[in-house]
Amino acid sequence: MPVLVGKKAPSFTAKAVQGENIIEEFSLEQYLGKKYVVFFFYPKDFTFVCPTELHRFQEELAEFEARNVAVVGCSTDSEFSHWAWLNTPREKGGIQGVKYPLVADINKTISEDYDVLSGLEDFDEEGRRSVEGELVAYRGLFLIDLEGVVRHQVVNDMPLGRSIRECLRVVDALQHFEQHGEVCPMDWQKGDKGMTADHGGVSDYLSGK
Questions:
Q1: Is 50 a catalytic residue?
Q2: Are residues 23 and 99 in the same domain?
Q3: Measured at the alpha carbon of residue 40, what is the angle toward residues 111 and 10, in degrees to the nearest 5?
Q4: Whether 21 and 117 share a structural domain
């Protein structure tokens, strides 16, 4: 799997749904120089683990906005599937009330570019295509900075839901480093002391100075 950390996030223009509106040309480039982006993939609309994640991102949306972070979801479903799911009440398995954009990667090119597409696709000598498994997205998550560079990525298998707290922690760590020039050690939390990237800084951190 290619590592995108330290590289420009793959660009795309695709249809997306936000609230009641279908956006014909949605791109992450609208956030360049303005907002950080948490761009996350999930396997399918109208499933079981996926709505728990989408609802949690909505519940914590104010926390992301306070950190100047835009949250954007993406799956290989169509914009019409996204729209129907967004207009289905929570008690009926829907995600009504989710307000951040959901990108429709129906051609699967975005998932391919971010290397989170599951399943195996192959062609025989006569050009006939075969597919093993489903061509849907794993639970990938990418933190993109103000310059459009990926600074963090994590990819979970289908059954494994993510941690919203860890996502926020990594955002805080990146912003702490950018603001103070201090690196963040194991299990660092917002408000904790950081470290300068030299032997003296390490010694001060370990001694509690």
A1: yes
A2: yes
A3: 50
A4: yes
